[in-house]
Amino acid sequence: MIYRFRIILDAEEDIFRDIELESSSTFEDLHNTIIQSFGMSGHEMATFYVTDEEWNQGEAIALTDMFEEPSKLMHQTALHDIFTDDQKTALYVYDFLNMWTFFVTCVEEAESIAGVSYPQLVFSHGVVPDEAPKTFEQSEEVQSDDDQEGWEDESYQDDQWY
Fold it and tell me: N or C: which end of the chain has fewer CB within 10 A?
């Protein structure tokens, strides 16, 4: 049995990949297929989040054990353990500094085809931008060093701290 996925990059323009993996593949296999099909380096941390139909983030499936609370790990979690008749969606976040965010939808289950090796990229649409489409913006409450008053004041010079 294989799963057919549509992976959509959260961007203004349509950028997506359709991929197929065996249902027994792990989330680490899915992670590797996504980064390869979108041309990512693969050197950054990543996590899947199981979602509901409105894409609300739920349980984490992490690349490594990085959360305080126990979470599932990609290499230990099979796709068929999460994607069921009732569960078809997940978020995939790659590179937590740049927050590349992808919508993952299991669009179909099908029989594997003899002679085809999985995973495979079935369809590619759109060009991936050089920089993540979404980034963290500094809130107004957080000030930059340039906004800090008094730092240029002579009373803060190193030779006056004793």
Answer: C
Q: For residue 71, name the pLDDT band (cuts at 50, 70, 90).
A: confident
Q: Which residues contact 156 (CB under 8 A, 6 or more apart)?
A: 150
List the beta bridge partners of residue 5. 19, 106
Question: Is residue 66 pLDDT above 90, yes or no?
Answer: no
With 70 as the cut, is the pLDDT of residue 58 above it?
yes
pLDDT at 161 over 90: no
Q: 2-126 belongs to which CATH class?
A: alpha beta
CA-closest candidate to residue 74, choices 124, 122, 35? 35
Taking the C-alpha atoms of residue 57 and residue 73, their distance in angstroms, rounded to an integer, is: 16
Cβ 83 vs Cβ 93: under 8 Å = no
Beta-carbon contacts of 20 under 8 Å, excluding residues fewer than 6 positions away, are 2, 3, 4, 5, 110, 118, 119, 120, 122
Q: Is 16 exposed, middle or buried (0-12, 13-18, 19+ CB in 10 A)?
A: buried
pLDDT of residue 42: 82
